# Entry
Amino acid sequence: MSGTVSPLAPKSYPSMPVIDGVRMATAAAGIKYKNRTDVLMMVFDRPASVAGVFTRSKCPSAPVDFCRSNLPHGVARAVVVNSGNANAFTGAKGRAATELTAKSASEAVGCAENEVYLASTGVIGEPLDATKFSGVLGTMAKEGTGDFWLEAAKAIMTTDTYPKVATRSAEIDGVRVTINGIAKGAGMIAPDMATMLSFVVTDAAIAPEALQAALSAGVGPTFNAVTVDSDTSTSDTLMLFATGAAEARGQKPVLAADDQRLAGFRAALNDLLKDLALQVVRDGEGARKMVEVTVTGAENDAAAKRIALSIANSPLVKTAVAGEDANWGRIVMAVGKSGEMADRDRLAIWFGDVRVAVDGARDPGYSEAAATAVMQQEDIPVRVDLGLGDGRATVWTCDLTKEYVAINGDYRS
Amino acid sequence: MSGTVSPLAPKSYPSMPVIDGVRMATAAAGIKYKNRTDVLMMVFDRPASVAGVFTRSKCPSAPVDFCRSNLPHGVARAVVVNSGNANAFTGAKGRAATELTAKSASEAVGCAENEVYLASTGVIGEPLDATKFSGVLGTMAKEGTGDFWLEAAKAIMTTDTYPKVATRSAEIDGVRVTINGIAKGAGMIAPDMATMLSFVVTDAAIAPEALQAALSAGVGPTFNAVTVDSDTSTSDTLMLFATGAAEARGQKPVLAADDQRLAGFRAALNDLLKDLALQVVRDGEGARKMVEVTVTGAENDAAAKRIALSIANSPLVKTAVAGEDANWGRIVMAVGKSGEMADRDRLAIWFGDVRVAVDGARDPGYSEAAATAVMQQEDIPVRVDLGLGDGRATVWTCDLTKEYVAINGDYRS
# Structure
């Protein structure tokens, strides 16, 4: 946790409603530091449906491997998350640690080990002493409470400067269902599947297959459209749990992925995922500004997204934003290096509503003062039109500041 | 030009021999600043063979377009290089500026306009006032001298903290030939074709086709294996000129690309290109350390290079190097995100001679002190073995420091 809170932090937190069927508890297990909350446990007293998306890293953490292997079973009873150690690149010891943690959790909750989900965040390559969980999970499972979302979000923070929570509601069969989510960043954030750790719970009754379809569809324009530093974590995990408690209030379970009754739920879920994803960007390590990059007129949507990410990941673009410098030439550079089709002489670029370039050259009416005024905002919209087709994408990033370098030049020690 | 010289600067400059057939002059044309040397002119009194490699950017600068269109002619009489303005993304005005500059140079030297080569470096998107060249090129063409390499290198600097020169010699037909080169960086440096600006001249007699083959082959493991910030410039230009003056000393012209007599020349050229490329990295914006990343045991050489670049471009790896932090977990992360085949459980990692990870976990004999000692060096060798095949590549980069952010947050103003 950094000493100063990001200037882009939310001005207030939403009041997080209780979601029937999930209880949470946190503890200080001494994973890395003494007397610091570093474990979160979620307990589903009745089996919950589960869906998940994970890092595309070829070197995933042991917990990611563990979750992936449990997912086909489709049922969750417990989630154990720790900060301070990622249990990644820990070899046989890492696998043993996940097994021991799952065993401890299954005994604490009274469930099968393949109904346990695990996530770890922190340093890569340090063996994780899973015996530290054994002493705390029993008590946590017993004492967990439903009104604990903000504390849960705090427990999983690493270099985050504020906890990330969001809540939405939707109707299925005329029954109001709630979706709550928490997330943590704040570096090693790049879209290549779900980014960082995030856990979302709903009381809706939705079968695993339908839940997975909703999550997989929702992640593209949200968590997979944000980047802090282009570095994809070994541990990225986004999970969605459905307790089914709404069934008692009359919601008939949704079984099929294409069930039209899910439309409202999907929209609310996507909105919540975007909320959480943007909170992650706004708390990017050292971030002082958020940049929304929209690319239009590309050959297709995939090309638009690659160009948008080329801009959003460019150190030169991000340092210019940090310096409030309307250096649109670096946007041209980033478009050019993306490898995607671009016609220099059709390119147009806007900062906010200020068009700075058109037809492959500086806008004839270019005003440095107007462009600079946009750069001085906290939120900076950048738009690039390629004039080639209908492809379109929006991604979000933050600026690259000296604080990012300071945070990451001395993180492990 | 930054106030402080990079700590990685060469301790001394080589004495640069004169190369018969080329003369150089510099001038202060007031492109961006007053009273600052900002133009370099090279003159070949007899037609020289020419070869070139350029940026792969889809938004190349006007001078890059201009050089590319002249290259098939194969003959050079003049080169005009300016700093302070890249003449990139300048539309029709940019093309007009290259044409006017070529016309001024052709009149000054007495050659055709397609025997003129141009390069510009500096801000993107600002119209370049080419009339400023008209007044100086005539005098430069007249007063140019052969003993002027260091001054030439100084004239093309932008954020460079030291001039970059190198010289080598080789034998063709038992005749000693010389190769001299200059280069400039120091940001927006990433390998995707020749990087930044570099001009190399030899007195050997080599036809354009053979010269181009030698240059294209040499650029892969040298200029295309260095990265400062993953940002590919719109203006990257590397040109090689052969004056043919050695013919008077008995060297028979080399016509074919596969002529075995070129072996020694190619080796000397590659060595010189590597020397210049490493000088560019060692002067990367804000650089305090150089990192040599070697990947072995990859599926093939191309995969090895992509993994090596994924490591070398990772902001988290580069900030860890800046902080002298032996954070090898970030190497694992960068291998994992590269998209290339990797088997976590076969991975081994070295910092210098210190093996820090093996078989997918921390080395049993890991010594933090030994690893940290390597990180405290100026030059840090990192090796990753994937244990999959024979693929191998080496790339070079520098650390990412607060100074990089400072330089680039406020470059344009």
Remarks:
- The longest strand of chain B covers residues 39-54.
- Confidence is low (pLDDT under 50) at residues 190-195 of chain B.
- Chain B touches chain A through 73 residues (CB under 8 Å).
